[in-house]
């Protein structure tokens, strides 16, 4: 007989560090990599394992005492070389909820400002024996460089316009919460696709889970080969929105050159902003998502962002559960073993 969610939660609370077994019998062995660098190279079982684990871990954040001993004795270091509110905070809280020791380092307060290279920084951090490194960096591939250099597990918290895997996983968890199955849903991602790591990770994740992914953007915001990723592409928002189950707005990535691609914010909103009138083209029960940070009145109207279809804050809550799951699945298995093997 399947265990109830309450029974699983109770068991998690009592378990010794690193020995959580999911109700379906899967263990930490099922995540095949020491690192989480992107969605592209995950298989669908690994994606499902992370989502199932996150689903079970959600409950911890609703307790009066929001802490379990699962990662006691493990240490997580966050290296953020780009600004972040949601990702950085939720990784820090996630590590604390699992009883890991955590430390955050920003570019502005690190020796990078004195000319130290990323690899030297990583080697020096690793000399302090962390179990996991979480990195956000403007350079695509920065997380891979760290993963190839360090024996600790590395989690990509966003590398340039390449990937942002935990964002796609939290988006998938949110879609599943509101729509049940992801397979067969029409998911529209619109805005600055060309400069967006969120779009790339979501396209990989949602396609692997069986969604029909549609992208819409002015031609200057669409990669020329976007259809090779298996998506339907539009240069206008209206035809993309027709019959949509999920509508995901993206910010213009000003820091990655996005501002050069359109005349003004007002013109962009008139042509491509998600207004109530445009949202009415989607299904009546369509949900509206945004990874944040939002630019109200540019890619999304305030009354849509705060309206009944919006699940934007639920995405943030799910981000915490997904990051707890990823920390647990990596620190409880591959990364820990690797460090032990190297010792
Ligand atoms: N979605 C996201 O990555 O937000 P932050 O930049 O605030 O982390």
Task: Itemize the secondary structure elements and their pairings.
Elements: H1 5-14, H2 44-57, E1 75-80, H3 86-97, E2 101-106, H4 118-126, E3 132-137, H5 142-149, E4 153-159, H6 165-179, E5 186-190, H7 197-208, E6 212-216, E7 232-234, H8 237-241, E8 246-249, H9 265-272, H10 276-279, E9 287-289, H11 302-305, H12 312-342
Parallel strand pairs: 1-2, 1-3, 3-4, 5-6, 5-8, 6-7, 8-9
The structure holds phosphoric acid mono(formamide)ester.
The site of phosphoric acid mono(formamide)ester has 10 residues, from helix 3.
Describe the structure.
With 343 residues, this protein is of the alpha/beta class. The chain is 38% helix and 13% strand. It is built from twelve helices and nine strands. The strands form two sheets. It has a five-stranded parallel β-sheet. It has a four-stranded parallel β-sheet with strand order 2-1-3-4, with helices on both faces. α5 (142-149) links the parallel β3 and β4 (153-159). It is globular, with a radius of gyration of 20 Å. The chain starts with a helix and ends with a helix. The model is unreliable at 1-19 and 334-343 (pLDDT under 50). The structure holds phosphoric acid mono(formamide)ester. Residues 84-87, 158, 164, 167, 291-293 line the site of phosphoric acid mono(formamide)ester.
């Amino acid at each position: 007989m399947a265990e109830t969610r309450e029974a699983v939660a109770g068991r998690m609370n009592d378990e010794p560090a690193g020995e959580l077994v999911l109700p379906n019998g899967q263990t930490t062995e099922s995540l095949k990599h020491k690192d989480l660098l992107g969605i592209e190279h995950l298989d669908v079982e690994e994606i499902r394992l992370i989502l199932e684990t996150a689903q079970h871990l959600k409950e911890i954040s609703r307790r009066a005492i929001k802490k379990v001993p699962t990662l006691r004795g493990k240490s997580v270091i966050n290296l953020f070389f780009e600004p972040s509110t949601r990702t950085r905070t939720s990784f820090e809280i996630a590590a604390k909820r699992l009883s890991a020791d955590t430390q955050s380092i920003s570019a502005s307060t690190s020796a990078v400002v004195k000319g130290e290279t990323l690899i030297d920084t990583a080697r020096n951090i690793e000399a302090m024996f962390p179990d996991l490194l979480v990195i956000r960096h403007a350079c695509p591939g920065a997380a891979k460089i760290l993963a190839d250099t360090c024996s600790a597990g590395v989690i990509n918290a966003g590398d340039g316009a390449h990937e942002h895997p935990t964002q796609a996983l939290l988006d998938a968890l949110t879609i599943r919460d509101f729509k049940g199955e992801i397979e067969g849903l029409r998911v529209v991602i619109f805005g600055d696709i060309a400069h967006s790591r969120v779009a790339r990770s979501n396209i990989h994740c949602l396609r692997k889970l069986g969604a029909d992914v549609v992208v819409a953007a002015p031609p200057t915001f669409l990669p020329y080969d976007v259809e090779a990723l298996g998506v339907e592409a539009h240069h206008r928002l209206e035809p993309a929105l027709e019959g949509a189950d999920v509508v995901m707005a993206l910010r213009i990535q000003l820091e990655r050159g996005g501002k050069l691609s359109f005349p003004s914010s007002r013109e962009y909103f008139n042509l491509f902003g998600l207004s109530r009138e445009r949202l009415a083209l989607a299904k009546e029960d369509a949900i509206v998502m945004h990874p944040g940070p939002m630019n109200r009145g540019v890619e999304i109207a305030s009354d849509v962002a705060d309206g009944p279809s919006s699940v934007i804050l639920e995405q943030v809550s799910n981000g915490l559960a997904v990051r707890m799951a990823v920390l647990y699945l990596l620190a409880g298995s591959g990364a820990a073993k690797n460090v032990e093997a190297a010792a």
